[in-house]
# Entry
Amino acid sequence: MPTLPPLPTFPATGGGQDVFYAWSDPVPRPLIVRAKGVRLWDGDGREYMDMSSGPVVSNIGHGNERVAEAMARQARELDYISVRQARSQPNLDLTARIATLAGPGFERVCLTSGGSEANECALKFLRWHALATGQPQRHKIITCYPSYHGGTFATLAMSGDDDVAPMIEGMIAPTIKVPAPLSYRPGANHTPTTYARHCAEALEAAILAAGPESVLAFFVEPVGGLATGCNVPPPEYFHAIRSICTRHGVALVFDEVLCGTGRTGKFLAAHHWPDALPDIVVMAKGLGSGYTPLGATLIPARMADRLSQGAGFGFFHTYSANPIACATALAVLDEYERLDVLANARGMGAHLREGLERLLAASSVVGDIRGLGMLMALEVVADKATKAPFPPDRPPLEPLKLAGLRNGLLIYGRRTSGGRNGDWIMVSPPLTMTREECDELLARLAATLREFEANLSL
Ligand SMILES: Cc1ncc(COP(=O)(O)O)c(C=O)c1O
# Structure
């Protein structure tokens, strides 16, 4: 069994982002020095598979030479201009490319430096639009519980996670919360479909209670990420929320920061439900695929141009539409095409799911596997029959991550609200993964779970 990298010692390491994290964290963070494809290596030559693409970011895998070349070329040609002062060709090309891939209804693309900022951009745009169209009373936002929308104050207030409540208390008002249509624990007397209907009804009830004319938008992750472990609502849910939002003049926003850019096998997750498209889509992560910080807010021309014909939409950060970031994302999207990444997300996603189904059947701790395309999660439970999560004093993710490191897997997992809704790990490797790599990953995961189970019974 390979030895683990040493635990960080403080303050001897003397810096790095991780000095801000809990010093008592028993899971070491290896010092990664090199990465290629689906693999990463630490300074001592230990090799790990990137089971989750980091936090579901590295869609085209690591160390892509073509992207690296495009970045260097752009840095030599034009490193920076401010979008306030001038235009750049990579910005024009990237926004046109995203709009084409997203299709009708998403003609205008506002670029940001990440997912939280792209959600803030959607919030600001909608508020400006409401003001410009004589609806200043529309200011209330509805989101799901549980959910995750980012780490800025506004997006923390949007996120449905009890653990953030003390942090934002008195600083910013939380958004109105409605239940997320969870499929694994839909509640007594419900199937996933009847529970999703109940959740859609709860949205309408919340709009009516708030006063429909005061509600600006409903933000939802169409396929869940870190807050629900890749929850996929039934199609009926999308049709229901679309017609509820339309009925009350509420903007429907899909937060596709994690599930967009091909993760689920289509460029937008929204494309799985073409009859229930949202008004706005927010994306990030896979768009830069780890090579550059980048996010995008996709807005229909009918709404954006209304503002541009008047006072405009004043969204600007110093690094908005940075030419190197745009050229990098263009090269990433070229790789999507060359490697037919969306087809692989569907095909290899099906193969991955089959392997996870086998783990589910064989394991006493795997309660559920769920997801879409190559956005999958595996939930571990204390009791498979009752679906009871691990109690707060027995969090399972640390021992699972340790077992992963020992078996050459870098594991990304999360529990929200103190584990009340469960504990899961993401199984979302790069979309370029081959069948052999997928089988190797599944074997390492099986060994990790066996080790975890064995330790539980000690
Ligand atoms: C659904 C969703 N929205 C927003 C964010 C925030 O994105 P970022 O970390 O790039 O700010 C995330 C990050 O995980 C996310 O999963």
About this structure: The radius of gyration is 22 Å. The pocket of pyridoxal-5'-phosphate is lined by residues 55, 114-116, 119, 148-151, 221, 225-226, 255, 257-258, 284 (CB under 6 Å). The first helix runs from residue 53 to 56.
